[in-house]
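Schema walkthrough. Field components (list of strings):
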Amino acid sequence: MTTTRHRAVARMIAVIGAVSLLAACSGNGGGGTGGDAGNYPDQNITFVVPFSAGGPTDTVTRMIAEPMAAKLGAKIVVQNVEGAGGTVGAGEVARAEADGYTVLMHHIGMSTAPALYKNLGYKPLEDFEMVGLVTEVPMTIVARKDFPPATLQDLVTHVKANANKVTLANAGIGAASHLCGLLFQSAAGVKLQEVPYEGTGPALTDLVGGQVDFMCDQTTNTSGQISGGKVKAYAVTTPERVKSLPDLPTTAEAGLPQLQVSVWHGLYAPKGTPQDVVQKLSEALKAALADQAVIDQMAKLGTAPVPAEDATPQAHRTKLEEQLGTWAKIIADAGVEAS
Amino acid sequence: MELLDNLVLGFSTALLVQNVLYCFVGVLLGTAVGVLPGIGPTATVAMLLPITFNFEPVTALIMLAGIYYGAQYGGSTTAILINLPGESSAAVTALDGHEMARQGRAGPALAAAAIGSFVAGTLATVALAVAAPPLASVALKFGPADYFSLVLFGLIVSIALARGSALKALAMIALGILFGTVGQDIYTGTPRFVFDQRELYGGIDFVSVAVGMFGVAEILRNLENEQARTAIVGKVKNLWPTREDRRRIVAPILRGTGLGAALGVLPGGGHVLASFTSYAVEKRISKRQQEFGHGAIEGVAGPESANNAAAQTSFIPLLTLGLPAHPVMALMVGAFIVHGITPGPNVIEDEPALFWGLIASMWIGNLLLVLLNLPLIGVWVRMLRIPYQVLFPMIILFAAIGTYSLSFNPYDVYAIVFFGLLGYVLIKCGCEPAPLLLGFVLGPLLEENLRRALIISRGDASVFLTRPISAVLLAVAVAALVVAVLPTIRKRREVVFAEEE
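Field assembly_structure (string):
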């Protein structure tokens, strides 16, 4: 009697063990052979997102992962490797097997990391194959509801007059909100007290709660709070207005044309990935970006897929080179360093 | 009457066949990942998120929410049976729950946890339906300075978790805070205590610490002598709580629910504090203080209720304001977005069926959980009869696989070994792992909010005393410290006097 029970329980445990082993292996892409581009892909592809699950970059990745998987005919597993402004995840992919089964989704942070981190373990242009650009997410300048300035120009005047009182929140060193905040300070010609948070969620919570004065963040996070009237919005940082927030002026319209920034996203493979594999990934990316469901989902976030000619390795490399130069200067001028 | 209409709308949504089905799938999966050490709700929700893209939005959210509170439920099972907490809240349950299991009372412990969770879940769901928007606006009043004082209060309260010396408990809290500082500092990016190991930049994983300090250390201690080894396999007295047990758990369940529901609303980590604040309260007001740490059923029922109530009310900031309080909630924000719903304060008005359907589903989910878990108690208790030669290697194997599967980082597995050995040494020195674990969880929150409050106030420390919420919390913290440490000091003085005589 007792022995049968023992056996039943032992069997149950064995089954649970097998399932968790399976989960562990499938999540890891299985290891395996790779390298044979003709059969690519013949196993799961891992998309590494160097930020937390549920954040804007993660959301964009999951949107395109499904149609890309359909086009490639393989399963795509999204894995979040957070830390240090995305440099932990990026470093991991830079060191990964160059077989096309480990792919990185990164945003503007790829171009700012070399200036921010002195001991960066990889070189953006040399350690990766560019696959293509994905989307450019606009940013918005938002403040707590009862913050006095009414317009963007009022805001600039106000923060200049009260530079020792005003607080500027961001989601941590190297986060998009941090970069946009730097750009704002340089455009307005003022140095403000920055308040870093661990991610956008907590930062936005304190902004809605009135604990900090203002911040600059992606429409992905802010549009709900703006249309719900929980925060005050001044401008959107792209040349054109955003469809989901039609009343919000652009920074150029609001009198601060120097403040232009968007969170551009791109796909990367480790250096040395066979060219035809990169090509296959790029084609799949193009197909995903043309997918109506993806276009609709992105529109709701106030963004859109890049044009097809930008979802290519060449366009991606050009963009990265230009951005590396731009940010090196802004960050050096601001005197920021994250070690 | 409006509330009634809303609830009717909610239940008519939540009782749709596919919604009940996916609610069940969610809580079942949640229970499973809660039971398996390592694989937590965040990883599970992240893995399943893409599957829900094809569901109706409300169905998707019902399932994802089910995984979250189901895991809170399941986490207590391994904590009680094999002293292996999967989440910080379950570490508190392990204190008395595992002691009860060693005394052959695993059944009543599991039942108390299940019943407490159900009652708490039900009451907290009512709170969510009646008062979500006003509670959310109260939560927003908490600034960094207030969170600092709240966490400090929580740390001091956690001294009560120790069975023995309060000073040793304080030392363990401090050690836990130190372990919590490993990794990159979020304000400057400076790596701390990483010894040039890139893998440590992200910090030490909670699961590694919990599995090592509790599970592995407990196994090592059990291997010491034949007597202790047989004790865990020991006799099973009864499966169900006795009449006396039932009488003893009513008040702790209600108090735990109230505490948990209140703390759960705070998005800056309030839900972490729920279970052990409840434990401390129960221990403080109990007439059987000496039983705590040695199998007091109140020490299981109270914290489990608090934990589950907090799990429900922590949805309030998300649902009313679109602000996530937990990584799982952040994933759910992602789910909102993918389904074309902009998370934010408009969700209640724009999507009433979704909001009320989700709330109604939480009650249904809690009912499903209790129906699912009560019959399983017999099965779980039988697990204790597995001979230790089989059970111990199994535990370690599952723990290692589960921890590795979190982020595929071998360091997380090495950390289990390190903390297992450390935990064993500490037990031998009479130091207990629970305060260390809470220091580890709360330390980063403490530091982050301290520094943030000082940044905002431009270095003016008086902000902790001039903000009313913070000032009250600090005063309570000081009082709690005096109450906790005084008896120890008095005892020592008595000893000194006794020696002088």
